[in-house]
Structure formats: structure tokens, C-alpha cells
């Protein structure tokens, strides 16, 4: 199958020879096809860009939300740790721990 295209400058027509048959099409229709294809591709790219921006915004919002949750968790853990008696006071036998140990026996 061979496809040879020739452009006649005097008549502005394109002659296609495909498997021995000749078809004539006008140059403006090919230009319209190219313009239509270009418009279609640009539309697809715009849609992809919009979807990318939407997905990017969703990821950033989720990351910000997780960052806030981590900050809250760190704060809560800091509060819990500050209320735990230090090892020093537990090993020195503070009166509160001795009283609690005696009361359990």
C-alpha cells in the first residue's frame, strides 16, 4: 500500500494515489483537520491541567491536615510526658510513692 501526495500549486488541490485510485481533496479541508486536531489536543491538555491542579490541591490540603494532626499529637504527648513523674523521684522513695506502696500491702 503506497500513499503519495502531490500538491498542485495552480489549483490548490491535493491528489492522493492510494492503491491505484486517485482522490482529490482541497487544501483547506486538510488545514481544517489540522486545526481541529490542534484544538482537540489543546482541549485535552487543558483538561489534564485542570485535573492535575485539582489533585495537587487535594494532596496539599491533606498534607496540611495531617501536619495539624501531628502538631496536636506532639502537644498531647508533651502534656502526658510532663505529668509522668521523673525516674529520680520514683527511685528516691518520695513520700507519695512510699504511702501508695504501704497502702497496697
TrEMBL record:
GO terms for molecular function: transcription corepressor activity. Residues 14-34, 88-105 have a biased composition (Polar residues). It comes from the Eukaryota. GO terms for biological process: cellular heat acclimation. Residues 1-34, 84-105 are annotated as: Disordered. Pfam families: HSBP1. One of its GO terms (cellular component) is cytosol. InterPro entries: HS1-bd (IPR009643). Belongs to the HSBP1 family. This is Heat shock factor-binding protein 1. It comes from Rotaria socialis. The lineage of its organism: Eukaryota, Metazoa, Spiralia, Gnathifera, Rotifera.
Amino acid at each position: 500500500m503506497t500513499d503519495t501526495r502531490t500538491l498542485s500549486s495552480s489549483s490548490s488541490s491535493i491528489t492522493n494515489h492510494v492503491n491505484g485510485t486517485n482522490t482529490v481533496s482541497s487544501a483547506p479541508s486538510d488545514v481544517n483537520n489540522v486545526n481541529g486536531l490542534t484544538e482537540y489536543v489543546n482541549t485535552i491538555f487543558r483538561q489534564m491541567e485542570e485535573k492535575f491542579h485539582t489533585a495537587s490541591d487535594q494532596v496539599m490540603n491533606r498534607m496540611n491536615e495531617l501536619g495539624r494532626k501531628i502538631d496536636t499529637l506532639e502537644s498531647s504527648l508533651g502534656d502526658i510526658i510532663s505529668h509522668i513523674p521523673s525516674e529520680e523521684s520514683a527511685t528516691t522513695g518520695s513520700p507519695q510513692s512510699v504511702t501508695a506502696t504501704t497502702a497496697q500491702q
